[in-house]
């Protein structure tokens, strides 16, 4: 206990999470208090009658943005990790180059092009941007999962088999725990990139934090663009620093 009666362990925990909590606090303050900054944005955009984006409140836009990124990232994680596990098994090793190439194509193919191809099939709205983010987020997850699984010392796997573990037990109890830091690093990269990329959804009717950016570009309103960019930037910093804290916590354990 310190002189204020607060356990030292609690103080250390708060200190470790200070950066993510700071970014989160700034994000929440900006989300609910954007209108209070009208004077600042008025100074930036002096020629516009309206300087605060008000076609939808920022709380709603943030929630929609988070939902799209979470769904796409969850699907990308499930597909990417499962595919990487499958091609590192004996029966699927012949497909390893194919899976790696498909994942690479998903990120090299521009998200805008994916949206243009998906809209005629899926229509306007949220589904096209989820498909685009899914394809765009596969590469770092597949690549890191492959690296993590293939980087495990073969002697460890042999020792696990020598203890009588089945293939499933070796995967669940040995391979995945050892590869987890590398896999999580890939998921972290995928999610962070997709937070920014999700703004493109506003071009196909998926309402999110890209709305003020697209509206600002169309109407020549710099204030709108800054509001959307600040929100997306703070969200990306919050998520990225949270992943970093979780990785450090796991490393300490």
Question: How would you describe what is shown here?
Answer:
- With 253 residues, this protein is an all-alpha fold.
- The protein is 76% helix and 0% strand.
- The protein has helices at residues 8-16, 18-33, 38-44, 58-87, 96-108, 111-122, 126-150, 154-162, 167-197, 210-219, 222-252.
- Helix 9 packs antiparallel against helix 11 (222-252) and helix 10 (210-219) packs antiparallel against helix 11 (222-252).
- The two termini are 23 Å apart.
- This is Osmoprotectant transport system permease protein.
- Residues 62-243 form the ABC transmembrane type-1 domain.
- Belongs to the binding-protein-dependent transport system permease family.
Describe the SSE topology.
Blueprint: H1 8-16, H2 18-33, H3 38-44, H4 58-87, H5 96-108, H6 111-122, H7 126-150, H8 154-162, H9 167-197, H10 210-219, H11 222-252
Key phrases:
single chain; mainly alpha; 11 helices; ABC_transp_perm/SBD; MetI-like fold; 253 residues; flat
Radius of gyration: 22 Å
Supply the number of structural domains. 1
The mean pLDDT is 87
Helix content: over 70%
Q: What class, by secondary structure content?
A: mainly alpha
Number of helices: 11
The main pleated sheet reads as:
none
Which percent range describes the beta-strand content? Answer: under 5%
- SSE string: HHHHHHHHHHH
User: Could you name the CATH class?
Assistant: Mainly Alpha
Q: Would you identify the CATH architecture?
A: Orthogonal Bundle
Uncertain spans, ≥5 residues at pLDDT below 50?
Answer: none
Corresponding CATH superfamily? MetI-like
Q: What gross morphology would you assign?
A: flat
Q: CA-to-CA gap between the ends?
A: 23 Å
Protein name: Osmoprotectant transport system permease protein
GO biological process, one term: transmembrane transport
Membrane topology: Multi-pass membrane protein
Transmembrane segments: 66-88, 109-139, 224-243
């Amino acid at each position: 206990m310190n002189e204020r009666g607060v356990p030292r362990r609690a103080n250390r925990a708060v200190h470790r999470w200070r950066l993510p909590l700071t970014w989160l606090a700034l994000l929440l303050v900006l989300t609910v208090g954007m209108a209070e900054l009208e004077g600042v944005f008025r100074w930036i955009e002096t020629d516009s009658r309206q300087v605060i984006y008000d076609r939808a409140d920022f709380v709603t836009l943030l929630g929609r943005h988070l939902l799209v990124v979470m769904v796409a990232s969850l699907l990308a994680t499930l597909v990417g990790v499962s595919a990487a596990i499958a091609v590192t098994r004996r029966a699927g090793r012949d497909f390893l180059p194919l899976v790696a190439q498909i994942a690479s194509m998903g990120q090299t193919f521009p998200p805008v092009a994916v949206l243009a191809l998906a809209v005629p099939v899926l229509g306007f709205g949220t589904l096209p941007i989820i498909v685009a983010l899914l394809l765009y987020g596969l590469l770092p997850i597949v690549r890191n999962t492959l690296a993590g699984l293939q980087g495990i010392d073969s002697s460890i796997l042999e020792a696990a088999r020598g203890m009588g573990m089945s293939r499933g037990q070796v995967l669940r109890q040995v391979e995945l725990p050892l590869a987890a830091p590398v896999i999580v690093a890939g998921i972290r990269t995928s999610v962070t990139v997709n937070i920014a990329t999700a703004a493109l959804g506003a071009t196909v009717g998926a309402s999110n934090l890209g709305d003020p950016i697209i509206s600002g570009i169309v109407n020549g309103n710099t204030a709108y663009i800054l509001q959307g960019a600040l929100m997306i930037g703070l969200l990306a910093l919050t998520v990225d620093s949270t992943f970093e804290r979780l990785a450090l916590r796991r490393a300490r354990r």
